[in-house]
Specification:
By secondary structure, this protein is mostly beta strands. It has a domain of about 130 residues. It contains 1 helix and 22 strands. The strands form 2 sheets. It has a 20-stranded antiparallel beta barrel. Strands 14-15 form a two-stranded antiparallel ribbon. β19 and β20 form a beta hairpin. It is globular.
Length: about 450
């Protein structure tokens, strides 16, 4: 079991104790029990795959405290097991668990943030096969911070962030680099409240990354220095965060590199049913970023997967339309990651959309029934000495009918079509397609204690 899991259990226990420590802290909860039976003509997702079926049993859950106490926490996760009819496919466990805990004592300048994350990444990220291709990761981050007020509009912020990241060993896969590591980050900033919705800051920070593996295994430790200007806008309509500056990296081999640091995050409420978000970032790869404008924390456990400093450039666009008569959401992204001092490169791009139409608009007999169409596309372009795979692409099209029998119980029927392609430097392109039908149900309950 990953060492971070033990830390996370302690964090969860503390959060429960705090939630029960007094009547001033209330907690909202929600859970869903899930079951899905799948019949597929290529259950293995291989080129010459076999037909078969699978049964998934799982649970989703979330706990969230109120925002009026000194202790706030948000805990969510899921766990499921999948059994396959073919003996050459192992029983599979899928799990994720994420907890964010904030200690913010009233009338104090001190804050303490804890983030714990357990998730899974592909065991072999160069393959299009998703079945039996998972390994566990665990991340624990702590961030104590303190600020000094100079006057009502100006203050100095100081913080330390410590990150411990572990990834499950997968020695049987030669293309897997063990990028387990410790990261220490020190930050100081001068902040000015320009008006009730605008904040300007100048930020200086230093980051030290120490991989568990050494140079002999291909891992290269590095230090990073950042200096940038930050502008945050938080209003009823717009949430904006802009960062512009410079970064410098020095690695254990004595190599140095200067680069630009940039973040542009624009979130806008177009009206009561529509939102749009644009994000552009450029700099050196990192585990997570805190978006002060949208008050979100983004975690990327696949960062620095080459176990050395990487330059990244990311772009994304998201749009949501949510009306009573129709719901639509879409997202497109592109991510370029390159070895800061080498030729290894990994480009990822893709997108997805989901459209939901309430069937009650067609007939009164179809109350609480929906028809949903969704599509997902992911594409990778590799140039690395870790694998002979050049490119890979996966497309998934789904059509789902769901009916809510009551406020808690829902059943669904879903048709899926999956197309995957993979090209090798030495071989011709390989492709595998599959069609499947899924039958399932979920039971959801929510409340407060």
């Amino acid at each position: 079991m990953i060492q971070t899991t033990r830390y996370l259990k302690n964090v969860i226990l503390l959060s429960i104790l705090f939630s029960w420590s007094g009547s001033s802290i209330s907690t909202e909860y929600q859970y869903s029990l899930l079951s899905r039976y799948q019949i597929s003509d290529n259950i293995t997702q291989n080129v010459d795959g076999e037909s078969g079926n699978s049964l998934l049993l799982g649970v989703d859950f979330s706990f969230q405290s109120d925002q009026y106490s000194s202790w706030e926490f948000d805990l969510s996760g899921n766990y499921s097991t999948t059994d396959y009819s073919l003996s050459n496919l192992a029983r599979e466990e899928s799990k994720s668990l994420r907890g964010i805990y904030l200690y913010r004592p009233k009338e104090s300048n001190f804050r303490f943030l804890t983030l714990a994350d357990i998730s899974q990444v592909p065991r072999n990220r160069f393959q299009t096969q998703e079945v039996n291709n998972l390994r566990d990761t665990g991340l624990l981050a702590v961030k104590p911070s303190y600020f000094v007020s100079i006057n009502p509009n100006d203050k100095i912020n100081m913080s330390y962030t410590g990150v411990n990241f572990d990834i499950e060993a997968a020695s049987e896969i030669a293309t897997n680099q063990d990028n387990s590591r410790m990261v220490d980050e020190y930050s100081i900033s001068y902040e000015k409240q320009v008006n009730p919705t605008n904040v300007m800051s100048i930020v200086a920070q230093e980051k030290n990354t120490d991989f568990d593996e050494g140079l002999a295994q291909g891992a290269v430790d590095f230090d990073q220095e950042d200096l940038f200007l930050q502008w945050v806008v938080n209003s009823r309509i717009n949430s904006i965060q802009i960062e512009l500056g410079k970064s410098k990296v020095r690695d254990a081999l004595g190599q140095e590199l200067d680069g630009n640091l940039a973040l542009v995050s624009l979130f806008r409420r177009l009206n009561r049913i529509q939102t749009i978000e644009l994000v552009y970032s450029e700099g050196f790869d990192s585990f997570f970023g805190i978006n002060l404008a949208t008050e979100t924390i983004n975690v990327n456990v696949q960062s620095n997967d080459l176990a050395r400093a990487q330059r990244i450039r990311e772009r994304s666009l998201a749009y949501v339309y949510n009306a009573a008569t129709f719901q639509f959401s879409m997202n497109i992204f592109k991510r370029d990651a390159k070895d800061a001092f080498g030729d290894n490169r990994d480009q990822q791009s893709g997108g997805n959309f989901r459209a939901v139409y309430p069937l009650s608009l067609l007939s009164r007999n179809l109350t609480n029934a929906d028809l949903a169409l969704s599509y997902r596309h992911t594409e990778n372009d590799f140039n690395t000495n870790l694998s002979t795979v050049d490119t890979s692409k996966v497309d998934i099209l789904s059509l789902r009918f769901s009916h809510a029998v009551n406020s808690g119980f829902t059943y669904f029927i879903e048709l899926n079509e999956r197309e995957a392609e993979q090209e090798d430097f030495a071989l011709l392109g390989l492709s595998n397609n599959s069609q499947s039908i899924n039958l399932g149900f979920s039971y959801t309950d929510r409340g407060k204690f």
